[in-house]
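Most newcomers find our protein records easier to grasp once they have seen one. To make this concrete, we reproduce a full record directly below:

…
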Amino acid sequence: MAIDGDVDLAVIGSGGAAMAAAISARQAGADVVVVERGTLGGTCVNVGCVPSKTLLAAAGLRHAAMTNPYAGVSLSADGVDLAALVAQKDDLVAGMRQAKYAVVADAYGFPVRKGEARFRDRDTVEIDGVPLRAAAYVVATGAVPDVPALPGLDQVPYLTSTSAMELTAVPQSLVVIGGGYVGMEQAQLFAHLGAEVTVVGRLAPHAEPELAEELRGVFAEDGITVVEERAATVSSTGDGTTVTTTSGRLVSGQRLLVATGRRAQTDGLGLEAAGVLTDARGFVVTDDQQRTSNPQIFAAGDVSGAPQYVYVAAAGGRAAALNALGVGGTEPARVDYTGQPSVVFTRPQLASAGLTEVQALAAGHRCECRVLGLADVPRALVNRDIRGAVKVVADADTGRMLGVHALAEGAGEMMLAATYAIRAGMTVDDVADTWAPYLTMAESLRIAAGLFRNQMPTSCCA
């Protein structure tokens, strides 16, 4: 069979990492092909960030109406037409997939080839059995929901974060296994839509303990029961599902949602034939230049075990393409994780940038931290919602800001300024002396930084 179109770079996948790799390669003048076996766009636009956040926004509006703190303003929150919300979500996803992926691919001039990619050997990939040889490859196939080996789970009709967003009716009750970012978002989503929700698992396991404790209070106010134990077994109860925890506690619900993390999507790729190693969890092993154990093959995004955020995937895809083509300049391209932000879109949002206190200590810093309650933030007082806090982690010797963590409405918006401050090497004094617009939640960053030199009560702007 003839070789089908030799190219400079073949990118397998079409999500954030893949698109960044293809765009960067085209900007460098390379001939590129993107191969996608499923739906164009990968996780974020199709089944991740975009659909979940639009549904969370809708659920948040309903919850805001139900918990309206302003006397004299009447709001209502009647029943939920989940089918209509899901249809609206699907329209948004389809529009963004076209505008942000199909149109972009056309604009940069790289084809997206539909088909199953599988490595035949170290040098050649087959697309639906047809060979394609490239000078280099980028594997960017992403990750999918991981399902634990819980006894009985295979006997019940469980949901994942993907299938949960296709429901057309709100379940009466829902048990969520997993208290990480997916579990927290999905738990609040359905609770705010009217379901009775129970979370089994440690809540916000990677958050600063002060903020995790605040979030427990928020979930309690929302009527969400949190059982911070591991699930041991799952069984059908006829009209629903029961989860038994390690202590023997029984938790039942009409539906069960499993949110225990994500695994690399490498099935069918033939990585062994290509000489590409994976780790114990199945993620593709790469060096700091995104190169795999086969020097001709690079990997980026969720499949490589990188932090699972679309902007991290894009940074990895760009570095992979530049290094694969040898056009990164005198130094290889690398992803600099300094100040990396993250946001969990709960209500209020849980967000961070840079190092946690534990990470800073492990990195050898002598740490000093301050925690600012939202009762000392004028914007929170005006909003009549003082749930949450801001924590700043600093180097005790230099005063340099190492990390910022917040549980607050709009906390995610604060993290851009926090990331800039961390990457620029600003000290807490620098931040405390920098302009902050009054009556914004972002002002809490300046107020929290000021606590390092004065923990007396603050005036409005002083």
User: Anything to note?
Assistant: The two ends are 75 Å apart (CA to CA).
